[in-house]
Every structure is written in structure tokens, then in C-alpha cells.
Amino acid sequence: MAEAERRRAVVDLGSNSFRLVVFAAAPGSWWKLTDEIFESVRIGAGVGESGELQPEPMERALHTIELYVHFCRASGLASEQVRAVATSAIRDAANRDEFLARAREAGLEVEVLSREEEARYAYLAAVNSTTLADGAVLDLGGGSLQLVEVRDRHALEVGSWPLGTVRMTERFLPGERASKKHLKALRAHVREELASASWLPGSGPRLAGIGGTVRNLAAAAMRAAGLPRVETQGFRLTRDALAELRAELADRPLDKRGDVPGIKPERGDIILAGAVAVETVLEVGDFDSVEVTEAGLREGIFFADLLAPAQPPLFEDVREASVRNLANQYEVEPRHTRHVAALSLGMWDALAAGAVHAGDPAERELLWAAAMLHDIGVSVDYDDHHHHSRYLILNAGLPGFDPRELALIAQMARYHRKGSPDLGELEPLMRKGDEALLRRCSAVLRLAEQLERSRDQSVRSTRMEIDGDLVRLDLLAEGDVSVARWAAERQRDLFEQAFGRGLELAAA
User: Fold this and answer.
1) How far apart are the C-alpha atoms of 163 and 250, rounded to whole Å?
2) H helices then E strands: how many in the chain?
3) Domains in the chain, ordered, with CATH?
4) Can you tell me the distance from the alpha carbon of 196 to that of 443, in angstroms, rounded to the nearest whole number?
5) CA pair distance 155, 313, nearest whole angstrom
6) How far lies 107's CA from each of 16, 76, 363, in Å?
7) SS3 411
8) CA distance 294 to 298
9) C-alpha torsion 396→399→402→406, nearest 10
10) Pick from 151, 394, 140: which is nearest to 271 by CA?
11) Which residues of the chain have pLDDT under 70?
12) Is the whole model's pTM more than 0.85, yes or no?
């Protein structure tokens, strides 16, 4: 019997913002974020210069903590279900004990993470939400910057520096305008600090980044490129795009930086320092881009709990885990879904073996993902469930996949029933050949769906024979397959358009 659903809350008391998140999980099956409260507290304001938490930020912080405590009680979350952690600003403050005592009086027991612990959770968040195996993880917060060297998905070297966006803004960019002199000084300081990370220049080709600043910069770069408004998960923010964005931010006065499309107004005054810090990491490490993940410290803490006792607590295959996680949240006739996926891959493999298409493993994985998720929209309503599936895929996201791949999976699910497959408004995310890829995978997925039209797995599998411009499809079945054959034959035109060959069905 499966373990019952459980809830966990993580309270992240960061230098720039406080965030309470609630996760629900059915261990071994699925997990998801179910609630979130965000407050731009800026508890780190003034810590860099004075060494202490200042009275006004501390009062804002304690007011927010009281709110969080009331929320947890009202939501039925017991104290053992809540883990509150503090990072750079509180960790470094001379009066942190006073703050921690007052937080305890308000009802929240706060754990101060060491630099190494903070970096470890950032690493777990990144490696469990991307396909990063070799390279580095960047975590940029309001108070500090963490870097973790990754080899074979394991953490090696760990570094932490007081280079957070709030600290660097106060020290180098406090004025209304950012002069070239100030920007040069900031860049030189970051570079000097990172010199202690001797491993960084040779850490590998990939850099994964977490944190609100990294996500905001990615969102702004996507908007500047005219890309559809999908989540930033998996987006690669290039050095060139970041340089253009940094230049635009530097040209604006302080109170106008939050007006840049994609930048959140509450981060506008500190975003330029963040852009310079990220850009300098890319230069020092000789990275072409930073791969963005929506996961953060909070997810890292949650993953450590969810995947325990494994050490390190890592998903074996992030992409597969991501697809299965979303599919299991909306479990709709799992036997049907799994069988459609098996039929799809069987036909795809046979067509590849017959040289009907190139047999790209990456394309095969996208087809599998779409097959596993094609019916999740039924959880909304059967009518137009193909549209609902597309919506859920695009908006829930799939960690481990980039925006292009997410869009392709969503479009395949959209066309698993009817319609002429096209990329629509998601076309700007695509590359050459993707329209043909979508037609191929949609044709195979729709054919598999129709072979399983009666939802009884009567068509156990298929056998294909390629004869010139004709594909003969034998249905290996038990019992009557008249419904399956009738439904599948209606997809001949789509199959011919996708593969340039006719389709003939027969019961073996």
C-alpha cells in the first residue's frame, strides 16, 4: 500500500526576500508545490556596512515571520512539518542571536545554514531539475554568491562569497545612475573574489543557475528576444544576451530598471548588480551561457527530505522523473496511458529501423513524454482535453527539458486527437526541422491512441513492414480489433503527410 500524501513547508529567510512554500508529496509517486507566500523583506539592507541587522528591516522581517506562523497554523501544518532556514545576511550579522530569539518568540524556530550547507542545497536544487552532470552551479542571492563544482552529478568544490545583489548594490551602485567607473569597480571586485575558486575556469562546459535574480534576467532576455511567455526553466541565458541586458539596465536610472519587461519591480534596484555578478562568473569560468532553473534553495531542502536516505539525494533520471511526476499528479487511466506510450515507441522504432526517419533518440524521448502526458487534460474535462493537456504541460513545466522541448511535448499532446499539427505561437522557440518533427511524432501518437481507442489493450503490439512507398501495419491482438482498425484507418492522411508513405492496416 502506497504511503499517504504528506505535506512539508520550507521557510527561506533570504537576504533580499522571505518565502514560505508548501509541498505535497505521495512518496515514490509524485510531488508538487501547493502554496507560496513571498515578501520582499530586504533584511540584508545595511548589514554589509554596519555588520548588524538594522532596526527597520528587522521589524519587517519579524512581521513577516508572524504572518508565516499564522498561515502554518491555519493550514494545519504542525511545527515538525515546517523547516525554517536563514542564509547570508542573518548568518553574518553580529546581532543574529537577538533576531533568532525574537523569531522563536513569534513561533518560528530558525536554523542558520552554514555557507557549505547553503551551497549544498543549491546544488541539489540544480542537479535535480536540470541534466547537469559536469560543470558548476551558481546560486546568487541578496547576500551571497555560491558556486559548486559538479562532476558526474556529484558536488566537489564549494565556494561562497559575500557578493549578493543587495550587498553589491549598496557598496558599488548606491546612486541614481550607474557610472562606468562604478560598474568597472564592481566587476573587478567580483573577479578578485572569485580568484580563490581556482577550479572554476576548468570546471566544464555547463553552468546552471538558481535564484530570483537569475530567473528575472532570463525572463527579461526571453522577452527581449520576442519569445513566447513560457517559464524560464531550462532557458540558456547567453553571455551576449546578458551583456545587452546589462547595458540596457545600466543606461536606465535606478527607478526605471524595474520597468524592463521581465524584471520584477521589487528587484529593479538590485538587478544591475546581479547582472554584473552573473556576467563576471560567465567570463571567469569561460561559460557560453547559464542554464536557468526554476528550482531554488527551498526545492533543494525538499529534495533532501523526499529522496532520503539516498546520498546524495538525486533523481536517477531527471527528465524521466519529471514526466512521471506530472503524469502521476493527474493519473487518468494509467494502463491506457502506458499502453499508448508503448505502442507509440514500438511504431517509432520500427519506422526508424526501416529508414523511414532518422531515429534520433532525443525525438524518441519527446514522443514518450507526450504519450505519457497526452491525457492529463481529462482531469479538467473530457471535452477538449487535448487543449487542457497542452495547457497543463506548458504551465506545470517539466524540469530537465528546455523551453523548446517543453513546447514540442505540449504540441504533440495537443494534436493527439485531431487537427493538423503546427507550432502556432510557440514557433519562435523552435529550430529548423521542428515542424516536421512535430508532424512525425503527432502522427505516431495519434495512431497509437486510435489503436487503443477501446482502452482495453486488445492491440498488444504492432509489426511494420516497409515496402517502398507503403507501410503495412499488422495489429498483433487478442479478440476483436474492429474498433481499433476503424479508428486507426482514419489517420492515414496524417501518416502520409508526416512520412510520405501510404499506410495499410491488417489484423495479424
Assistant:
1) 19
2) 19, 14
3) 6-113 (3.30.420.40), 116-298 (3.30.420.150), 319-507 (1.10.3210.10)
4) 54
5) 12
6) 22, 15, 51
7) helix
8) 11
9) -40
10) 140
11) 1-3
12) yes
C-alpha to C-alpha distance for 326 and 375, rounded to whole angstroms: 11
Can you tell me the distance from the alpha carbon of 66 to that of 344, in angstroms, rounded to the nearest whole number?
A: 53
DSSP code at position 415: T
In degrees, rounded to 5, the angle at the alpha carbon of residue 172 between the alpha carbons of residues 168 and 113 is 15
Q: Which cell is 303 given?
A: 529534495
Tell me the C-alpha distance between 449 and 472, whole Å: 18
What CA–CA distance (Å, rounded) separates 215 from 297?
13
User: How many residues in total does the chain contain?
Assistant: 508
Q: Closest by alpha carbon to 142, among 19, 29, 234? A: 19
Q: Quote the DSSP letter at residue 113.
A: P
C-beta separation of 19 from 11 below 8 A: yes
And the C-alpha cell for 207?
A: 553552468
What pLDDT is recorded for position 2? 47
Please give the grid coordinates belonging to residue 145: 554568491
Write out the three cell numbers for 396. 506545470
Which one, of 153, 159, 243, lies nearest residue 197 by Cα? 159
Q: In 3D, which of 228, 230, 229, 222 has the Cα closest to residue 289?
A: 222
Q: What angle do CA 253, 256, 259 make, to 5 degrees?
A: 150
Quote the CA–CA distance of 186 and 11 in Å, as a whole number. 31
With CA atoms as reference, report the closest residue to 364 among 405, 399, 332: 405
User: Closest by alpha carbon to 138, among 196, 223, 219, 212?
Assistant: 212
Rounded Cα–Cα distance for residues 167 and 186 (Å): 11
Compute CA 461 distance to the chain's CA centroid, rounded to the nearest angstrom: 35
Q: What is d(CA 53, CA 67) in angstroms, rounded to the nearest whole number?
A: 20
Report pLDDT for 203. Answer: 87
Measuring CA to CA, which residue among 295, 337, 324 is closest to residue 211?
A: 295
Q: Checking phi first, is residue 486 left (phi over 0); if not, alpha (psi -120 to 50) or beta? A: alpha
